[in-house]
Predict the 3D structure of the following.
Amino acid sequence: MTGMRSWTRVAFALTAAAAASAFSAPDQTPPAVGDTAPAFTLKCLAGHDHTLADFKGKIVVLEWTNPGCPVVQRHYKDGLMPAAQREAREKGIVWLAVNSTNPEHSNYRAPEDLKKTFTEWQAAYAAQLMDADGTTGTAYGAKTTPHIFVIDAQGKIAYNGAIDDDTSGRKPERINYALAAVDALLAGKPVAVATTQPYGCSVKYK
Amino acid sequence: MGPLFLALAPSFARPAAANGFQENPLKRVRLVVLEAGNPGPAKVAFDVELEAGWHLYWVNPGDAGLAPDARWTLPPGFAASPLRHPVPKKFVQSGFISLGHESRVLLISEINPPPTGWPKGPWEAGAVLEWMACRESCLTGESPAKAAFPPSATALNEGRELAKAFSSRFPRPFSESGLTAGRGSAVRSGFGWRVEAAVTGSFAAEATEFFAYPVEGFVVQNAEVAVRGGKIVCPLVPSRGSGAPPPSAVRGVLVVAGQGYEIDVPVASPSLDRKLIELISRR
């Protein structure tokens, strides 16, 4: 009888859990870790189209950026972001910066201007992609600059969150979550910390 | 153009410059003694005045932003507590939630003396407030401030008046709310957990908002945090994968009839998981 009651409770809980899952309709919410990364076609600063499918079979890092954001500025001026980009590149990772700042916002910068700034900052990403209408940012649920998504070789989101655990920029030792995720994927291991709270400025969507 | 740091007297706020001229979102920052302490802890507050339209962030900044932090310079052995915030305001932009403060805000800290006690002579508590302020765009900066100990009678009187004037903005203990909160339950939801806790009592219908403190090891889904049908609802995504168990507790501020109350909701282990674990362990 006790077993029966237990199974009844399990069945009820399963039903409740299924109902809860159905309640958060996946087509209304951005993808979570383990979901397929949304496809995109975006122009880089040179005006060439780049699609996620171009990098099929590779690990891809997407970094939402906005040079008008002081948190982004710190990460570049301290050399942390370029160092992470270089390390990822040396490991065969495709690192793409994505800029979803809308053209009416005071932080919007034209591609030529962005190229100049990020060159001065010694950015080492493969490309910076313009997402001025915010479609790709919205599809991913990018909230902040910076906000990092790591996509595995199968095209699934493996990490979603902050670049690191150092919100103040004063930690002597910091964990770079993006690189930790990349290293885990390269080693064929599960990503230990797969979701964190991103920090920085809000993405300047329309 | 090189960085331009703008300092407005009497404010010491220094925003991090991006490009060219920019305004200073913090009109004034000062350190005020609210309670003199001695022999017990003293209470001080950053009294921050913001320019119109700008906001600072709460301890959980929401979907974006950064909570302010303080670096202290105190006599040896003294320690300052983390900043205590008033109840935040919710800002919604492009569907994302930010939690913060505008206009004028007090950020309170307790200064705890060492076991050896207070210094005999006068001394100074120094602090640098590190902040991020946003309006349409964001700026970060540092604002140094200091307070003299022992405070003068005038300074202490001003501090007491300030504390009195702002006291209703700070959360009170939940026990003063006249409400009762049930133990929280955790239900699997999407890629994480939805913690729910029933709130009962005569004024339960007047509970309108819940602001969750950061939960270690989880990302609070701020846009979905709510008080619905007499229940606090707080969805969380575990940092270490969807298989991670729910937190043992969720803490936050429940707003009832406009007053904030600090609430600590212990979360019961979900029976479903216990049963599944039992089942797996039997095999």
